């Protein structure tokens, strides 16, 4: 029944795009989301038709006719009350479990995702590929690969929304949010800002270009030949003097950074935190809020000295140190 | 016995003119300084009608603009001000007060057999406070408007918007106190001033729904007040309460804002459901099916409504666990509403149904509220909400419940109690015609928006990709029909005040203490305090309707 | 019994029996319930702020401790004692009406309550707020970041924001309370209160006690957040 409905809708969509009732389903989860949607549509249609028909039937059968007596009493039925409480509840449980399972599965990006960075600002999207190329209001991705977007805003709250992939996440200033997807067909798809952000909110739109892996590699290669994010970060690392405390010398003041990305770090109060993007961002901008065990809390803040893009560069650099072994064991 | 009460509470002669609350005293002072809950209800009616027109004009301009993908009428900046004005005015200055402050104020004492509400002076004060809020908001609208959306999310609203956010927030803050006073008044009135024999379970369901609404008024409104106050302070003094650049958390605003604003939507819909209970019983001349289930479902909705606010924030960066909790609770809150719909439908069974305008509005409500409520499930469901949040699907959903629901119920209630309020009957043929136009226009306007939303068109867009144009034009066409539908009642209702047929005490032959008094009622409502001996909706002892229609 | 446009005054009836009620007892019951409902709204009103404060304090404990040390707990403590005493005098005012004492007794207790309330406000405005203003710790009015606060400075400012907001709102409620007490004093002077009729005193007492209780929560949260002595 569901498959038939889907087929009907799909063919209509293919024939007349402007009269289609659903957007293209272009990601690994899109079909699953659509299935939940169609089930909900079915439930809605069923109950709407049911209630409408019963009302119409009663309206006609029990219309007031002069001289015709009627029974003004009602005879409450516990059976009915329980039925129409329990059955809708069961339907809700089914929808909740099904939909939440999907949501929870989709909330964690797979471990091997290709990471791309997004900075939203009024009123455009800056996309930064770790290999170096940058784009504005466009995002090129390879088909069939898990893509994780790490996003932040430079000003107000925005929303990153790709209808064809059924993904959306708000983009906040002052922190990172992330979303992941795997495009399962090539093509060009809408990108919208979905959280009202001011005057040109409706123009903060763009395109997602899904390409075959070879095309994508070629695009990356011929894109603006700038340094990779990590290389830019390496330069900044020296420029800002980070290496004076976080160098590789045996007696560094601060923790060595080689290989710490993604690992748990012990803090002075005994707790542990994983060194992820948010942790590194916090360490760079508000270091007095982090106290790593075994080290003095003397790192100066770099708030105001680096913008969001530069923070991402530094993070990419630290990430790139992952291959080397830690020399300062603590 | 109700028949005895009827005779005792009617004047000895029913010849015109009779003294009633409208003509007991004349003059502007007697209205502006009135302590009569009925006159205060009418003062509110006038004010909210004006605000409805303001909000409606904003909507008209919005829909006209959306005929063209690049915007047919206004610049994006103006469009943003229009949708913000539309939302703020319609939510805070029309829907929230609508049924409670007009029909509630007018009817509660009459329905429970009291002479007035518990605190008449506070009642009048609440109207003045409301008017102050309205005046301030109209001032904002006329001097450049506000462009943050009715949701005022920071940091845009606190640090980036160039419009008068502070005054708009203060206007809503002030109007909130009007809600709080109304809620307080209703709670105490219903608890303490019921006539002898009017036990809790003999109360009309309209009273139960207003009681549940008042709980939300009292507990929810202070939180939006403090939230807007904090936002105002941040805006004025540039201190960082919600701005991350200054150490604040924008998500805290969203939590605090929605903690009120979700229960607020139940402030809008619960009284409507109460009206429907009255209309369905009156026009099928039957007791309600499942009285206690309907009564308790109102309370359940009020309580659970405070626990679901996070469903507005599923994609905001809120944790997955929070999402799960809010999702399951949001499904839970749907159940009592479903119970009501089934009970109303079952009430029609073996009834004696007539199709005057109030009944058409009531039946329309049931259909449209069913659709609106069920589409809420799409948004309670996490994986679909990720796709649908922030799109036209949400816009369609809430217009189905608020316009197809609350406004239809308001119109139905207004038409039902119009003879009682004014002593006049409106032309029913025109009324039924208008109800049909509204129903058709409404569906034409908002059903395409479900499709637009699923297709991915975001809300609050002044411009949109060309492929969405057909549906937008359809929606705007529907809006013009809807507008006509709302203008027609304005005309014939005013007309009826002077030229309408004079109404007797109970033109519909309905049960309820309000129908045992003259139309319009005396200032003190009852000549003698009624003594209640019957259950609610005891239609076996109801008089015949005076207006005999098919 | 008609549209009585009563705005000022309470008529000649000393017990002010309002027309919408059937009995005086019903009127008192309604008044009491109304005040409790109003207090519920006040709990949510202050509660919103308490919640915001709690969230930020858990996010920035160190900064909030610094902020708390900017406040003088001795003044806060004294004010707490002053308010508790004022609740006592208020209760005694109600008691003296209840037990049919002379109006002079009632008035004396009411005036004492007002004086204690005024003392609270005087200590707060003259010695705490004014001092903060001079020290540049009033957000939005020349707030200076101090170097010893380091990266915590924005959150210290946020603490002070909450401090002024919460104590300011509380002070506003105190001022309103003193206004109510003035009205009650006038009513007592006119001989309105007897052992049968003292409802306005009782209901206003509820309000006064509530304002006191809010302070009892505010004091430890704001003044004692970082312990009594700086680290």
Structure description:
The complex is a heterotrimer of chains A (330), B (550) and C (231). In chain A, a hairpin with a 4-residue loop joins strand 6 (158-162) and strand 7 (167-171). Chain A has helices at residues 2-15, 30-61, 78-107, 213-222, 229-239, 277-285, 308-320; strands at residues 114-121, 124-128, 134-136, 138-142, 146-153, 158-162, 167-171, 177-182, 187-193, 206-211, 264-266, 272-274. Chain A is of the alpha+beta class and 330 residues long. Chain A folds into three domains: 2-65 and 73-107, no CATH class; 114-222, Cupredoxins -  blue copper proteins (Immunoglobulin-like, Sandwich); 229-323, Cytochrome Bc1 Complex, Chain D, domain 2, CATH 1.10.760.10. In chain A, the strands form three sheets. Chain A has a five-stranded mixed β-sheet, covered by helices on one side. Chain A has a five-stranded mixed β-sheet with strand order 4-10-9-6-7. Chain A has a two-stranded antiparallel ribbon with strand order 11-12. With 550 residues, chain B is mainly alpha-helical. Chain B has 17 helices and two strands. Chain B is globular, with a radius of gyration of 23 Å. Chain C is mainly α. Chain C has one domain (25-223): Cytochrome c oxidase, subunit III, four-helix bundle (Four Helix Bundle (Hemerythrin (Met), subunit A), Up-down Bundle). Chain C contains six helices and no strands. In chain C, helix 1 packs antiparallel against helix 5 (153-189), helix 3 (73-98) runs antiparallel to helix 6 (199-223) and helix 4 packs antiparallel against helix 5 (153-189).
Content-based structural category of chain A: alpha+beta
Shape of chain B: globular
Mean pLDDT of chain B: 93
Q: What is the N-to-C succession of helices and strands of chain B? A: HHHHHHHHHHHHHHHEHHE
Order of helices and strands of chain A: HHHEEEEEEEEEEHHEEHH
Average pLDDT score of chain A: 87
Termini separation of chain A: 61 Å
Question: Based on DSSP secondary structure assignment, what is the total number of beta strands of chain A?
Answer: 12
Name of the CATH first level of chain B: Mainly Alpha
Gross morphology of chain A is elongated
Q: What is the number of independent domains of chain B?
A: 1
Which runs of chain B of at least 5 residues are low in confidence (pLDDT < 50)? 1-8
Spatial strand sequence of the major β-sheet of chain B: 1-2
**Main sheet makeup of chain B:** 2 strands, antiparallel
């Amino acid at each position: 029944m569901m498959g038939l409905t889907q087929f009907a809708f799909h063919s209509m969509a293919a024939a007349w795009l402007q009269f289609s009732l659903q957007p293209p389903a272009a990601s690994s989860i899109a079909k699953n989301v659509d299935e939940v949607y169609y089930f909900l549509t079915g439930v809605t249609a069923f109950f709407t038709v049911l209630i409408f028909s019963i009302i119409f039937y009663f309206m006609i059968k029990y219309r007031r006719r002069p001289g015709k007596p009627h029974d003004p009493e009602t005879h409450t039925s516990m059976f009915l009350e329980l039925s129409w409480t329990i059955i809708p509840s069961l339907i809700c449980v089914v929808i909740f479990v099904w939909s939440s399972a999907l949501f929870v599965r989709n909330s964690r990006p797979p471990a091997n995702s290709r990471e791309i960075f997004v900075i939203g600002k009024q009123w455009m999207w800056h996309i930064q590929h770790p290999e170096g190329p940058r784009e504005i209001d466009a995002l090129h991705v390879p088909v069939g690969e898990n893509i994780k977007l790490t996003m932040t805003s430079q000003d107000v709250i925005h929303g990153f929304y790709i209808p064809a992939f059924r993904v959306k996440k708000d983009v906040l200033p002052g922190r990172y949010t992330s979303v992941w997807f795997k495009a399962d067909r090539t093509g060009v798809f809408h990108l919208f800002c979905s959280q009202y952000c001011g005057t040109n909110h409706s123009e903060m739109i763009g395109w997602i270009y899904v390409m075959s892996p070879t095309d994508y590699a070629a695009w990356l290669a011929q894109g603006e030949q700038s340094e990779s994010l990590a290389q830019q970060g390496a330069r900044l690392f020296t420029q800002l003097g980070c290496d004076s405390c976080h160098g590789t010398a045996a007696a560094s003041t601060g923790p060595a950074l080689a290989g710490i990305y993604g690992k748990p770090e012990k803090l002075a109060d005994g707790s542990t935190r994983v060194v992820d993007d948010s942790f590194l961002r916090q360490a760079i901008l508000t270091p007095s809020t982090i106290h790593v065990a075994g080290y003095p809390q003397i790192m100066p803040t770099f708030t105001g000295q680096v913008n969001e893009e530069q923070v991402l560069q530094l993070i990419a650099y630290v990430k790139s140190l992952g291959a080397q072994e830690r020399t300062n064991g603590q | 016995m109700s028949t005895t009460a009827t005779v005792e509470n009617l004047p000895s002669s029913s010849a015109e003119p009779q003294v009633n609350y409208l003509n007991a005293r004349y003059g502007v002072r007697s209205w502006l300084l009135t302590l009569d809950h009925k006159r205060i209800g009418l003062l509110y009616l006038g004010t909210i009608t004006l605000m409805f027109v303001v909000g409606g004009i904003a909507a008209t301009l919005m829909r006209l603009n959306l005929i063209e993908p690049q915007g047919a009428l206004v610049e994006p900046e103006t469009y943003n001000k229009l949708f913000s004005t539309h939302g703020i005015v319609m939510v805070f200055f029309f829907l929230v007060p609508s049924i409670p402050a007009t029909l509630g104020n007018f009817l509660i004492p009459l329905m429970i057999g009291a002479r007035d509400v518990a605190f008449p002076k506070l009642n009048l004060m609440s109207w003045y406070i409301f008017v102050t809020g309205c005046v301030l908001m109209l001032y904002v609208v006329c001097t450049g408007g506000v462009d943050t959306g009715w949701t005022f999310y920071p940091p845009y609203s606190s640090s980036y918007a160039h419009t008068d956010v502070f005054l708009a927030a203060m206007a809503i803050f002030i109007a909130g106190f009007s809600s709080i006073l109304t809620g307080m008044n209703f709670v105490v009135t219903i608890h303490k001033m019921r006539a002898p024999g009017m036990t809790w379970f003999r109360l009309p369901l309209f009273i139960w729904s207003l009681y549940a609404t008042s709980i939300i008024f009292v507990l929810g409104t202070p939180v939006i007040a403090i939230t807007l106050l904090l936002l105002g302070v941040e805006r004025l003094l540039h201190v960082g309460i919600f701005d991350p650049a200054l150490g604040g958390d924008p998500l805290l605003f969203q939590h605090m804002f929605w903690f009120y604003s979700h229960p607020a939507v139940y402030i809008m819909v619960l009284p409507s459901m109460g009206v429907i209970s009255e209309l369905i019983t009156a026009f099928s001349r039957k007791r309600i099916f499942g009285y206690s289930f309907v009564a308790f479902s109102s309370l359940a909705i009020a309580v659970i409504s405070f626990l679901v606010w996070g469903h507005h924030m599923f994609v905001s960066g809120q944790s997955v666990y929070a999402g799960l909790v809010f999702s399951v609770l949001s499904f839970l809150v749907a159940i009592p509403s479903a119970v009501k719909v089934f009970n109303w439908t079952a009430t029609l069974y073996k009834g004696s149904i007539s199709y005057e305008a109030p009944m058409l509005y009531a039946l329309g409500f049931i259909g449209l509220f069913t659709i609106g409520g069920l589409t809420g499930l799409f948004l309670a469901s996490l994986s679909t909400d990720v796709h649908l949040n922030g799109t036209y699907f949400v816009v369609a959903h809430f217009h189905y419940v608020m316009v197809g629901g609350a406004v239809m119920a308001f119109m139905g209630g207004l038409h039902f109690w119009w003879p009682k309020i004014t002593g006049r009957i409106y032309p029913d043929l025109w009324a039924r015609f208008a109800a049909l136009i509204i129903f058709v226009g409404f569906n034409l306007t908002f059903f395409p928006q479900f499709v637009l939303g699923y297709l991915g068109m975001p809300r609050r867009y002044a411009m949109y990709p060309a492929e969405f144009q057909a549906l937008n034009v359809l929606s705007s066409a529907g809006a013009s029909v809807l507008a006509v539908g709302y203008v027609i009642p304005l005309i014939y209702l005013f007309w009826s005040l002077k030229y309408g047929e004079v109404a007797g005490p109970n033109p519909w032959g309905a049960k309820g203490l309000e129908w045992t008094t003259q139309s319009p009622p005396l200032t003190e409502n009852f000549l003698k305090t009624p003594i209640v001996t019957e259950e609610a909706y005891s239609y076996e002892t109801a008089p015949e309707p005076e207006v005999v229609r098919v | 019994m008609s549209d009585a446009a009563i705005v000022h005054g309470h008529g000649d009836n000393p017990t002010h029996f309002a027309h919408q009620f059937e009995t005086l007892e019903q009127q008192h019951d309604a008044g009491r319930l109304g005040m409790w409902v109003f207090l519920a709204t006040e709990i949510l009103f202050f509660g919103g702020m308490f919640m915001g404060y709690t969230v930020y304090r858990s996010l920035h404990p160190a900064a909030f401790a610094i902020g708390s040390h900017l406040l003088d707990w001795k003044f806060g403590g004294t004010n707490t004692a002053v308010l508790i005493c004022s609740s006592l005098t208020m209760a005694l005012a109600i008691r003296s009406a209840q037990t049919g004492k002379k109006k002079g007794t009632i008035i004396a207790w009411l005036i004492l309550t007002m004086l204690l309330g005024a003392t609270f406000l005087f200590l707060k405005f003259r010695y705490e707020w004014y001092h903060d203003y001079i020290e540049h710790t009033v957000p939005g009015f020349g707030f200076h970041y101090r170097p010893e606060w380091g990266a915590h400075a924005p959150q210290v400012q946020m603490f002070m924001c909450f401090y002024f907001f919460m104590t300011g709102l509380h002070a506003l409620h105190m001022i309103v309370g003193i206004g109510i007490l003035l009205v009650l004093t006038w009513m007592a002077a006119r001989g309105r209160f007897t052992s049968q009729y003292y409802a306005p005193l009782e209901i206003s007492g509820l309000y006064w006690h509530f304002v006191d209780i809010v302070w009892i929560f505010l004091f430890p949260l704001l003044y004692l957040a970082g312990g009594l002595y700086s680290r």
